[in-house]
Amino acid sequence: MDIDAAKVQALRAGRVPIYEPGLDKLLADNAARISFSTSYDELLEESRILFVAVDTPPTPSGDADLSRVQRVVDEVAQRGGPRLVVMKSTVPVGTGERVVADLEAAGMRDITYVSNPEFLREGAAIEDFLAPDRIVIGAFREEDGDEVEALYRGVEAPIVRTSVPTAEMIKYAANAFLSTKISFINEIANVCEAVGADVREVARGMGLDHRIGPHFLNAGIGFGGSCFPKDVQALKQLAGNSGYHFQLLTAVIEVNHLQKRRVVGKLKERLGSLRGKRVALLGLTFKPHTDDLREAASIVLAARLRSEGAEVTAFDPLVPGPKHVQFPGVRLFADALGAVREADAAVLVTEWPEFATLDWKAVAGAMREPFLVDGRNFLDPAALSAAGFTYVGIGVPPVTPAPVGQAGAATLG
Ligand code: UDX
Q1: What number does the ligand 1 atom closest to the CA of 287 have?
Q2: How confident is the model at residue 111 (pLDDT cuts 50, 70, 90)?
């Protein structure tokens, strides 16, 4: 059930309203077992278990906005059912207890509540759902947890059974820790630039320590998306509301803001003033394999470049052009070559796989100046050098164009 009639209509017609690899096929394969509705009456009358999966965007204070959750709770309260409410939405610790209190205040006695946070990544959602690292189930009563656990029969994963507040906290703590890892490696990258070390090798050397692990150590222009930025902020706010100043998260957030802006510094270092210079952005979505632009670094970067007086062009495989409300004043092209034509610099913002196989020689030829900032350390510096580029990554030694006929890269200094 969704309040957005257009979404429901699309789903009824077998169209998935977002880009998520494999989801359209999964929907088609299971069409006989799934129905869509815009009506609370229809939904709540017929169901025994209700999964709440509404969004909880940040309010201006950084708290999570629970108005959508509240709406669902009110609708449940009005109708006296269904019996078991399972919270998938990321909600602040204490929400479960409040929801139950609200429902009881509305005179409902036999309603129960389970917290079952979701950990799936956009672009890999199906895989993460069917083969999760763990399933977290927080319940007030043992039998409710058992009922939700039974739904996952057949999915191989450790099950973490716990209290409702602990389950709520696990979700925030996991996202905050992953964000911390990213901001940490980004700061290491910034120091690497100052001292001439290579963050990719540092990350590999660190990640082989099993206590650290190799994941989420890719330095770049920072994290975006619908979860990390808002959840880190919400946890910081939750701590603050409870009287605790979460210093580490304050730094994680600030590092992430600054990381996007450092790209502008790299461009200025090379080009001087950006006024009148043409900068091409390659990739706009917050990460590949999704069409999601929420909290994408590209939005901040494009706005900063525009305010520096640069002319900004862009290409993203899933963001249609030539104009987009999120990118005022930016010209969007239908292919990478169009976006880079006559550009003074290009910035790789999203590591779409197709950028690895771009004809970089042709790109260099189309640009006014073959200068590339690789915001994701995604491309091979030696190959870019061979294609004629001056290449600057994040925390990696920059390279200059290789002399004609030579494949190797010349390190700048
Ligand atoms: C995340 C969590 O991974 C998931 O468990 C949670 O349920 C929702 O939030 P998602 O937002 O889809 O999932 O993206 P993820 O793949 O985790 O990446 C988040 C951001 O971090 C992206 O902008 C990505 O580019 C960035 N990132 C990730 C890095 O900059 N470096 C890394 O090493 C990893």
Answers
A1: 25
A2: confident
